Every structure is written in C-alpha cells, then in structure tokens.
Amino acid sequence: MLRSFHAGRFLFFLFAIAWSSLGAPAQARISADSTDTPPPKHELRGMWIATVENIDWPNQRGQAPEQYRRDYRRLLDAGQRAGINAVFVQIRPASDAFYKSTLEPWSKWLTGVQGKAPAGGDDPLPFLITEAHRRGMEFHAWFNPYRATMDSVTRRLAPNHPYRQHPQWFLRYGGQLLYNPGLPEVRAHITRVILDVVRRYDIDAVHFDDYFYPYPEPGQVFHDEAAFRDFNPDHFEKLADWRRNNVNVLIHDLHDSIRLAKRWVKFGISPFGVWMNKSADPLGSDTRAGQPSFSNLYADSRLWLEKGWIDYIVPQLYWSSNFRLVPYPILLEWWTRNHFDRHLYIGHGTYRMLESTRSDTTWRNPRELPRQIRLNRSYDGEAPGSVFFSAKSLLANPLHTTDSLRQNLFRYPALVPPMPWMDAVPPLPVANLTLRRLSHYVTLNWQPGPAAPDGDVATYYVLYRFEANERSTPNDPRRILALPRPAPGFPATFVDTAAVPGQAYAYYVTAVDRLHNESRPMRVITMGLQSTEIAQGQAPAGATSTGARPATVAAQPGASRPQPRIVLRPNGPNESPEASTPFTKVKMKVKEKPKRRGFFAKLFGN
What we know:
five-stranded antiparallel sheet; alpha/beta; Glycoside hydrolase; globular; 2 domains; Immunoglobulin-like; nine-stranded parallel sheet
C-alpha cells in the first residue's frame, strides 16, 4: 500500500505520529521547531469564505451594507492574525451574484430576496477585493459553474434569472436545478459571466470548487440523453467520455479567455481529492474512495494540469492521516507526483475538528492539522500552500489548532508563490531609499522604481531587518519586518518603532509585482548612533532578484526582536479612504534643534 511513498518521508510521518501520540513535552516541541532551518518564504495560506446558505459570510441574509462590511472586515482581521495571505470568496454560489451584474440576479444570501439589490445600490465586490488587498491577501473569486439552485422550486427565482429566459438549459437532479454541461450555449453563458467579473473587477484569480457533473444519487438519472445525441461533434460513443469532454472544453476555453482578458489573473480549481483509485486505473492513487472525480464527476483534473489549462489545483484532502480508505499521506504523495509543475495547494478540512465523527476520529487530535502541514512542507516545495475549509471553522480555533498555526507554523509571514509560466520578470528595484534615525525611531522612505521590461510595477514591498553579524539574505522570512502596500504611484514610508536604541541594523527593501516576482534588494544601514542619522540606500554587492545571497552586516543571529507598530502610506488621489491606511502622526524626540518644517516634512523626514 505504501510502495510509492518515499521512505524518508514515510519514516518522518511514522515518527510524527508516535511523537504526538506519546504527548511530547511542550518545551521539546518548541525546541524541535526552533532550528536554524527557516520556514518557507513562499507559501499560500488561504481560507474559503462560503456564502451559500450564509456558511461564513454574510452572517445573515438582508443585512445593511454597513453591517455586512463590518462582519467581513472582522473575518479578514481574524484571518490576518492567523497568518492567512489569500481568501477564496464565493461570489456566485448558484447562478446568482454578490456583485452588480446584468447577466444574473443578486443573491438571496446577500439581500434576503433573489434579485433585490443591496440598500443604496451598494456593490460589495470592490469593497471585498480592496479589504483583502489592504491586508496583503490575494482575492480569488470563487464561482460554482453549474449549480443554478439549491432546491428545485422555480417560482421564487428572480425575473432575470437565466432559467426564466432559457429553461431548456437546465435539468433537475438531486433536488436541485443544474445547468446542462453538454450544451454549448451553457458553456458560453458561464464563460460570459466569469469574464464579466474578470474585466470589471480587480480580482487575482478565478476559482472553481468540486461541483461539475453532480455527485451521483442512488436511484436517480441525470437525463442529458438529448444533448448527447444532438451536441456530439466528436462522435463519442461512451456517455462518460462525452461528459468529460464537455467539462474539458469549458476549462480549456475559459483558461484561454481569461489570459486574453487579463494576463495576470490566475485560474484554479479545487476538485474532489481523489482523481481515480489505483484499482480502476494504474495512474490512480492507492486509495479506495467511493466517488473519484474522473469517473463519477467527469472532472479530469489530472489532464487539466498536464495540459496547463489551470494554474493551480487545490484537491480537497479532508481525510486524516489515519483514515483507512483514503489516508492523507498516500493521497498527498500522489498529488506531488501528478501536478505537472503547476502549483499544488492542499485543501484541509478544518471543519472536521468541529464534528463528532466516528468514521475519522483522528480529527479529534489537535496535532493532526499541524502534522499535515509539516508533511506538505517535507516535499521541498512540491505542495507550497494550504487552503482551509472553511473560514469560520478555522477562526473558531478548534482544539486550539489555529493558535498553533499562528504561534508556530504561520508565525512568520510568507509570500504567495510566483508562477513563472505566467510571469517570470521581476520588477525593478525601489528608488531613492533613505533612512533617518531620530532617537529610537528609524524611518525609511523610498519611491517605486520605473516599470520593468514587461510593463509591471511594484504592487507591494518586502522590508527586511538584520542585526549586526547576522547573515543578510532575503531568503529568510524570519527577517521580514513588514509587507507595505502603499497607494500606487506614491512614496512609501515605514517607521520602525521597535528598533533598539544604540543597536546597528541593516534594512533591505525589495519590490514585488502582481504575480509575486521579487526584485533585487536595496540596502540601507544605521549605525545605532543616539544622534540623528541619515543614510542613502544602495544595492548590496552581488545582489540579484529573489534568492540572492548578498553581503553581511554587523550582531547576534536569531536574537529576539520587538515588533514594529507603525506603517504609513498616503491615499492616492483616486483611492477611497478604505483602500489604504490613514496618515499616522509619529512623535519623535530629536536631540538637535530642528529647523521649522511643514506637516509633510515632519511626517516623511525630508
């Protein structure tokens, strides 16, 4: 059963189970994680925010915009504290919209009545995206492609629901109304809906969940025989092959259409966790899942990766390490061999820790989720991320697991992994980096560099801080001080309020573009003098983009550091106050008599 599982990782896995089952002392566990090996610098850490049936957000139907905005901010704030850097927000749960659309009706899970607009004509989607970006999170717009209703009652559908104009597009199955994937008009409509969002909103990715053809229901038949007869240009003889091709055509065409609309928008899918069992297909995993996606949902996720039609995959591996039919380590190892150089993020079932399940009791162990993430990391970047279902279950802190992530595995920030097949050109370095030290405040100012050869400019920055005799390299996320995201086109300012008086530091600043390519660093040094210091930044010797090992500067490696408290950035002229943090006044004690200066000169230290 474990023939294809790498021996070293299997031993690691067995040791982890034995160690946790023996209840290792807290101090021993801390020591084990306090090695000189840095955590991954690039790792996607996401959470699904489900809107269907108000699972995660909004808290209830029909809330005023002020309330659902407040609740969303709280959700993101909690996710930020847990280390999340990407959100997957369900904006089309059932052929409806959490945004202003001329193609489909407003969602009843937002306003209480399908087709009814929010109070004041509010369009929530720009707000949802902006708030995620403010917190350094990617925004993945989550669409359910084929589900039209959660029941089969049509009398409550809004007048502009597609069913009203095109009832022939839909089939009833499993107590729901579903689009017929075999109809070219259906595929065209789904593509039109998604591209409308891609073109009009500043999303980072288009995301699908696991619902393609419906999960089989006992004693029920999905009656698409007429479409099989009338829309089968390739003359498939088997219904299953035709159905898989219908989904493949949608995925392929949508991928190309997204690229043409906006080259930086990613396309990712979260399928059921088992593609095929090995007993039915030699390429499958050594599992015994009841409804593999290839055969039961007609979703050939392995082919999409092999053809490069999707940029990332998030298989839903909601089983524990000890689940007999589908063990987590076996399935993880299979996916690491079958993602074809596209990004593999793992979908974790954090909701399982809130269940009283008898079939998978390992989820009652608080060490199970951290164990899974450590196993992901043991694959040397083959599984560079995790997404948790769902937001409320993660933030409920089941079994104190979220505390464990925040204090240990997600203690340090991580950048979303770059995708070189989409963009491998880093932005140019920052310009005019300066440092000013007044007493124990260290203020850094810089300006965005010019556009890179591909036209990209910086989207955000990474600020590193190093102490004396500490190896200065941008490869270690433990030295990341902040990830500032100033308004486009405006100078950036960061005030390090945690700098120890008399301590010398070196600061690195790098620019990062929309797809997380990182520029070569610019360096500036403070000698720790008590009087005013002013320094100009420069490129470290031998510095290159992402992965350089530049020069060293003067102290104690691994020393604990107070955390900075203030990041400043101005609002752009076309940006709402919600889009960026407000001005913050900083009191600075200066020993030399300052000249008379205006407000902005005091703020930026120029």
